[in-house]
Design brief:
GO terms for molecular function: ATP binding; kinase activity; metal ion binding; pyruvate, phosphate dikinase activity. The chain has about 850 residues and is α/β, with parallel strands linked by helices. The chain has five domains: about 1-95 and about 210-235, Dna Ligase, domain 1, CATH 3.30.1490.20; about 110-190, Acyl-CoA Binding Protein; about 240-335, D-amino Acid Aminotransferase, Chain A, domain 1 (2-Layer Sandwich); about 375-510, Glucose Oxidase, domain 1 (3-Layer(bba) Sandwich); about 525-615 and about 650-860, Phosphoenolpyruvate-binding domains (TIM Barrel). Helix content is about 45%, strand content about 20%. The chain has 33 helices and 33 strands. The strands form seven sheets. An eight-stranded mixed sheet has the order 14-24-23-16-17-18-19-15. It has an eight-stranded parallel barrel with strand order 26-27-28-29-30-31-32-33, surrounded by seven helices. Bound molecules: adenosine-5'-diphosphate and magnesium ion (2 copies).
Length: about 850
């Protein structure tokens, strides 16, 4: 088995083996682009390293040195050589891009001897590179805090009276190298390694280890990246953007990653290396300034960026270095972007004829798109708000919250449920968790490609960077326009404009742009799975229609009974001692319920409307406070103690598994009859008055045995047909069930014989399959998460492994009886992209989700990636 590949041996399709960075470096090599050559140690080698208890096996070491020899031959340089020495970078790169999460070491191969050899040619570059190597190596390999080195640098800068490390002269750099080596030796307990091969192996190991550093673990979790993938390591010949005149290094996107506008968008620094641009420690120049100073290199880079975009059929995020006027490409990948940009780019690239509609839909990252529906500031509130500062609009969306100055405090606020805005000089990868839990991020330093900006965009989180008017102080205060702000003070930020406001500003839901609406209609053309909505009111239904829902997959009828005037009739019904009493109480509910359905049918017109019959245990409707009980007693002319007795009698040890769902209607069929009458009469009324051929779908919950269903369905159909006949009209109604018990899954073939449709109630199915209650699981699921037992909340994203098998079984059993039976899902999972993926693959007819998730779901069902 091959573990190490020359760039010239790979290509973009080998991403799993070479990681994203390695595969794309290989691809650019194949395309004949100017890429410094090198080789990639595969992800399999990383896994092998962990399997061997963190040792790189002898045979892989041998392969690495063989490939190093080939690189020496290709470059005509010698690693550790006494003339024309080869320096390399050691760069991490997993299958999925994880910007800034893992480690890179530059200028490897420099030693006290080699630096002197290199110095004969260019002393300043030699020592500048050496000091960078020592610092990075200390950080990455030995985990020595960067700050010890930064302190030395500060000291030397002060001593020489120079502003930036880029301007240090040779003597200063030599002095810095001397100091760095002392610090290194002090903290590492050994001198800086003088054998380049030792440097190389140690750096490779460190990159392997960085796969499991806390921020990488956190990032993986956030983005669903499996631990088992491992990272690859790229060893690449160094090129030098720090060789003085005619040298630069930078990053650029082929389109604006914040707005999507078609333009080369990027930042660079003259006479610099690597991390200087993204670390936020130097303020970079915008890419158009490169056009002015190095027009040829700029033009070449521009041309390559266009070629790459066409080649990868997506917006590219590229890294480059210019050494003495010569351009080198160091990386390309599909660029991360804001939701707005994603929509604009996908739309434009279809219009420009670069990609197909299907490719445009596939290009959209649904996790990020959710940001589109994120709130915007309320226009009115905004017009009277106090704008106190302006920075760069790095990631759009409006956010208000309490100021916090560090990631740990952000977590504390998050745990208290208080929204906060993380305000920092600049962010670093350690801050990632705090950034995730903050409502927004504001930094006073950094450009549009700084860490804060890139990470916030990846999270779809509101972010402003480079806001120099906000002076963040060591003592956890910020001074803005002369006023001091402390932790807990409220501010608001608008990541779309870069404006910072004092106080809290109200927000309103985001609107869909015309481009997004067009993409959604393309998605509808391509999708086979329909998107329904869960809506209990005409207002929700109308909202969902606006968002493009094609039906209602779930009306929870009990929600209709909680309003003040209704709950009383409901309680009367529950307190009834006899069927006659109960029917009388239900008569009061009938017109109310009928009107609800009239309103909803009028909104939904000829689209299917799935109505679930009363589901929750009855105690949920009873009052809990003494005052309410007393009120009820007087209304019902009953004794308080009698009511208390009834409430006690309704008490169940496991209400989730108690007298609920179809069991209620089986004990009290008159409830189901009232609901049937309300639905059918409402449907007929709307049909008659408005002429719509309404499509009611009656759904019986929590069926575990087909006999339960048959018992109710027979009575429902009998009554429905009777009413329809009386009206001398026709009506297309269906009676189906919700499958939400494991037993129902196993018996789905029998059930299918009786039902007109099936909808999976995945909330209950998850609860009943795992055997843990969704109301109580939160606490121990947190332990499970920490211990790595269950790391994904199965109530938010379907447990495809376990619960998914039950669904699959039921699906196939049902289809084996009725090949065309309508099958959908109406749990929370119907709006979760990963779960939708699962339902789509199985062949569901629809997924149903809450109105605001409908647009994203429409994209999900159309994706074929
Ligand atoms: P990250 O994944 O954090 O972006 P990279 O491996 O891309 O880390 O390295 C960071 C930066 O280091 C690059 O953007 C580039 O500027 C610089 N770099 C990496 N390899 C080389 C090289 N061979 N020559 C010159 N600069 C390099
Ligand atoms: Mg990079
Ligand atoms: Mg249920």
């Amino acid at each position: 088995m091959q573990f190490v590949y020359m760039f010239s041996e790979g290509n973009a399709a080998m991403r799993d083996v070479l990681g994203g960075k390695g595969a794309n470096l290989a691809e650019m090599t194949q395309l004949g682009f100017p890429v410094p050559q090198g080789f990639t140690v595969s992800t399999a080698a990383c896994n092998d390293y962990y399997k061997e208890n963190k040792v790189i096996s002898k045979s892989i070491q041998k392969e690495i040195f063989e490939k190093l020899a080939r690189l020496e031959a290709v470059s005509n340089k010698q690693f550790g050589g006494t003339h024309n020495p080869l320096l390399v970078s050691v760069r991490s790169g997993a299958r999925a891009s994880m910007p800034g999460m893992m480690d890179t070491v530059l200028n490897l191969g420099l030693t006290d001897d080699v630096v002197e050899v290199m110095a004969q040619d260019d002393a300043r570059t030699a020592f500048d590179s050496y000091r960078r190597l020592i610092q990075m190596y200390a950080d990455v390999v030995k985990e020595i805090d960067k700050k010890y080195f930064d302190q030395e640098l500060e000291f030397v800068l002060k001593e020489t009276g120079i502003d930036s490390d880029h301007d240090l002269d040779l003597d200063a750099l030599k002095g810095l190298v001397r100091r760095y080596k002392v610090i290194y030796e002090y903290h590492a307990n050994e001198p800086f390694p003088q054998d380049p091969r030792v440097q190389l192996m140690e750096a490779i190991e460190a990159v392997f280890r960085s796969w499991n550093n806390p921020r990488a673990i956190y990032y993986r979790k956030m983005h669903d990246i499996p631990e088992s993938w491992g990272t690859a390591v790229n060893i690449q010949e160094m090129v030098f953007g720090n060789k003085g005149e005619g040298c630069a290094t930078g990053v650029a996107f082929s389109r604006n990653p914040a707005s999507g506008e078609k333009m080369l968008y990027g930042e660079f620094l003259f006479n610099a290396q690597g991390e200087d641009v993204v670390a936020g420690t130097h303020t970079p120049l915008t890419i158009d300034q490169l056009e002015k100073t190095m027009p040829e290199a700029y033009q070449e880079f521009y041309d390559l960026s266009q070629k790459l975009e066409h080649h990868y059929r997506d917006m590219q995020d590229m890294e480059f270095t210019i050494e003495k006027g010569k351009l080198f490409m160091l990386q390309t990948r599909n660029g991360k972007r804001t939701a707005q940009a994603a929509v604009q780019i996908a739309y434009d690239m279809v219009e420009e004829g670069i990609i197909t509609k299907q490719e445009a839909i596939n290009q959209l990252d649904t996790q990020i798109l959710e940001g589109l529906l994120h709130p915007q500031f309320d226009e009115k509130a905004l017009s009277v708000a106090d704008m106190i500062a302006k920075g760069l609009p790095a990631s759009p969306g409006a956010a208000s919250g309490a100021i916090v100055f560090d990631a740990t405090t952000a977590l504390k606020y998050f745990e208290k449920g208080t929204p906060c805005i993380l305000v920092r000089l600049e962010t670093s990868p350690e801050d990632i968790e705090g950034m995730h839990v903050s409502s927004g991020i504001l930094t006073s330093r950094g450009g549009m490609t700084s860490h804060a900006a890139v990470v916030a965009r990846g999270m779809g989180k509101s972010c402003i960077v480079g806001c120099s008017e906000v002076a963040v102080k060591e003592n956890k205060t910020a001074i803005i326009k002369g006023k001091t702000y402390r932790e807990g003070d409220l501010i608001s930020i608008d990541g779309s404009t870069g404006f910072v406001y004092e106080g809290r500003i109200g927000t309103q839901p985001g609107l869909l742009s015309d481009e997004f609406k067009t993409l959604l209609t393309w998605a509808d053309e391509l999708a086979t799975v329909k998107v329904y909505t869960n809506a209990d009111t005409p207002k929700d239904a109308a909202k969902a229609l606006e968002y493009g829902a094609r039906g209602i997959g779930l009306i929870r009828t009990e929600h209709m009974f909680f309003e003040k005037n209704r709950i009383r009739a409901m309680r009367e019904m529950i307190l009834s001692q006899t069927t006659v009493q109960r029917e009388k109480a239900l008569e009061k509910l009938l017109p109310i319920q009928r009107q609800d359905f009239v309103d909803i049918f009028s909104v939904m017109k000829e689209l299917p409307v799935t109505i679930r019959y009363l589901d929750p245990p009855l105690h949920e409707f009873m009052p809990t406070t003494t005052q309410e009980i007393e009120e009820l007693a007087s209304i019902m002319s009953m004794g308080v103690s009698d009511i208390k007795t009834v409430i006690r009698s309704l008490h169940e040890y496991n209400p989730m598994m108690g007298h609920r769902g179809c069991r209620l209607a089986i004990s009290y069929p008159e409830i189901a009859m009232m609901q049937t009458r309300a639905i059918i009469e409402a449907a007929l009324e709307v049909k008659k008055t408005e002429g719509y051929d309404v499509q009611p779908e009656i759904m019986i919950p929590l069926v575990g045995d087909v006999k339960e269903f048959n018992f109710l369905a027979m009575r429902i159909r009998e009554l429905a047909d009777k009413i329809i006949n009386e009206h001398e009209l026709s009506l297309n109604y269906r009676v189906g069930t919700m499958i939400e018990l494991p037993r129902a899954c196993v018996m789905a073939d029998q059930i299918a014989k009786s039902v007109d449709f099936i909808s999976f109630g995945t909330n209950d199915l998850t609860q009943m399959s795992f055997g843990f209650s969704r109301d109580d699981a939160g606490e121990f699921l947190r332990d499970y998460d920490r211990l790595g037992i269950i790391t994904k909340d199965p109530f938010a994203s379907l447990d495809t492994e376990g619960v998914g098998q039950l669904i699959e079984l039921a699906y196939h059993k049902a289809r084996s009886i009725k090949p065309d039976i309508k099958i959908g899902v109406c749990g929370e999972h119907g709006g979760d992209p990963r779960s939708i993926e699962f339902f789509k693959k199985l062949g569901f007819n629809y997924v149903s989700c809450s109105p605001f998730r409908v647009p994203i779901a429409r994209i999900c069902v159309a994706q074929t990636k």
